[in-house]
Design goal:
The chain contains eleven helices and twelve strands. The protein is an alpha/beta fold. The chain is elongated and about 60 Å long. The chain binds alpha-L-arabinofuranose.
């Protein structure tokens, strides 16, 4: 008898935990199903972003169908088409590159499934193809990186040789962080970008490309890396070449993930522009509003800051990601 009661209790507990994992109807979310196509798992930022989306869906009672595109647009298009076939209530995705989305977005619109862009933008002229775009202002991030550099070298007349590790080719953050940085440093001809190449937002590629930069350019003053991970890979390359990161070569990165902030407070990076991956709660709120037919702003910009080495030391222990 006791055995039968224990088995029933266990079965009940198992059923409860399955419901909680799948989202279900908690938090006033009704029975919303969201299909989410993630770029990949290329960086610490991306891992934190995935966790934020998954945790927030659970907390909001939204059932999340999640797919990882492994940095390939064709995989994202397949995932979106499969969400359309499954008749999800809403689709959200972070587009790996800016171009080439019109056809699949039109298919979602024809199927009357609303789409939210999160983190990265698309360059579609027809903005009715999506309801809103939630994410950072990447041009502004590039400008902040450039402003720090201009200030750092304000008293110097000598040329400043910069190498740039770009993010994924064709992605909004790579295009915009380059453009914003260029806008600011372009005002003074002493700033020269002597080499610029993609490191695909990964640590391994950042290291590999920096090794090549170091071989062909003996006089590098500054590295501008479009994310922390590429900067951290580059630090390994710089140390491997017998130079001191943060001193022999000054380093500016974007993101402010924990590993980047650790390197900043250790003096190996000089300045980090924050890009917040914690988009999940706002995404779920927007999704609920869109489904209820409420008006949402066409653009929701994430609030972000910047960090010097001193500021990194102060906030490191409380950093969430
Ligand atoms: O789109 C945001 C960027 O993508 C982050 O800066 C980078 O780390 C990530 O891979």
């Amino acid at each position: 008898m006791l055995k039968r009661i224990s088995a029933l209790v266990l079965a009940g507990l198992t059923a409860m935990s399955v419901t909680a994992c799948g989202g279900g109807s908690g938090g006033g979310g009704g029975s919303i199903t969201m299909g989410f196509s993630q770029v990949g798992a290329e960086s610490g930022w991306r891992t934190a972003n995935t966790k934020s989306v998954q945790d927030s869906a659970r907390n909001a009672g939204i059932t999340l169908k999640f797919s990882d595109a492994q940095q390939k647009q064709e995989n994202q298009i397949k995932a979106i088409r499969s969400y359309i076939q499954q008749k999800v209530d809403i689709i959200a995705f972070s587009p790996v590159v800016e171009s080439g989305w019109d056809t699949v977005l039109k298919e979602a619109k024809d199927a009357k499934i609303p789409v939210i862009l999160t983190d990265r933008a698309v360059d579609s002229k027809d903005t009715s193809l999506y309801k809103t775009f939630l994410g950072s202002d990447f041009v502004e991030e590039g400008k902040k990186a450039g402003q720090w550099l201009v200030n750092e070298y304000k008293d110097s007349k000598d040329p400043v040789n910069i190498v740039e590790l770009q993010g994924t080719t064709g992605s909004a953050p790579a295009n915009d962080r380059k453009a914003g940085f260029q806008q600011v440093i372009g005002a003074d001809p002493k700033f020269k970008i002597i080499a610029s190449q993609t490191g695909d937002f990964t640590r391994a590629k950042g290291k590999e490309v920096m090794e090549a930069f170091l071989k062909s350019n003996p006089d590098i003053d500054v590295l501008y890396a479009h994310n922390d991970d590429m900067g951290l890979g580059a630090i390994e390359a710089i140390e491997g070449a017998g130079k001191v990161p943060g001193k022999d070569i000054k380093i500016i990165t974007v993101d402010a993930v924990k590993d980047g902030m650790q390197a900043l407070s250790d003096g190996k990076i000089n300045f980090i522009v924050e890009c917040s991956p914690l988009l999940g709660p706002q995404l779920m709120d927007l999704a609920k509003k869109v489904i209820k037919g409420e008006q949402v702003p066409a653009r929701v910009v994430t609030q972000e800051t910047t960090f010097t080495q001193e500021q990194a030391k102060q906030v490191l222990s409380s950093r969430q990601y």
